[in-house]
Amino acid sequence: MAPQGDRGVAMSDRLADAFDFQGRLGRDDQRRLELKLGVIAVLAWVTPIALLMAGAPRALAWLPFLALPPAGVAFVAAGVRRLHDVGLGARMEFVRGAGFLIMVLGPLAAAILIPDLPEPFGWVLVGFSAIIFIVALGRNLTGGRPEWGPGDPGPNRFGPPPE
What we know:
With about 160 residues, the protein is mainly alpha-helical.
C-alpha cells in the first residue's frame, strides 16, 4: 500500500488517483500508471479509426476520442507527481503536457470536425497525430530526464516518500 500524502489521499498508481497533482509517485508506480493510461489512449485512438473504416457515421466514430483529453491530463499528473518525488517543481511538465495535447488533439479535432475536409487530408491529420503520440511516447520510455533517477529517500517539500 502506498503512503498517505499531505491531504490523506493515497499516492499510488491506481486509476482513481490518476488526476491527483499533489504528492509523490515512485518510478515503478509511474510506469504502471502510464501503462494503464497508454492502453486507454490507444483504444481511444484505434476504435474511431476502426469505426470509420467499418463505415460508421462520423458523428458516432468521434465519441471514443473523448477519452484522450482526460488520459492526457492524467499523464501530466503522473509526471508532476514523479517530479515531486525527485524534489523538483512541475512547471516544465505542464508546458510539455499542454504542448503535447495541442499537437495531438488539434489535428484530430480538425480531421473529425471539419465536414468538407477531403478524406485523404483527414487521414493525413490522423497520421500526423499518431506520429506525434508515438514520438512522445518513445521519448518518455527512453528516459534521460531527471525524474528517471531515484526519488528522494526521505520526506521532501512534496510529502513523504512513496513505498
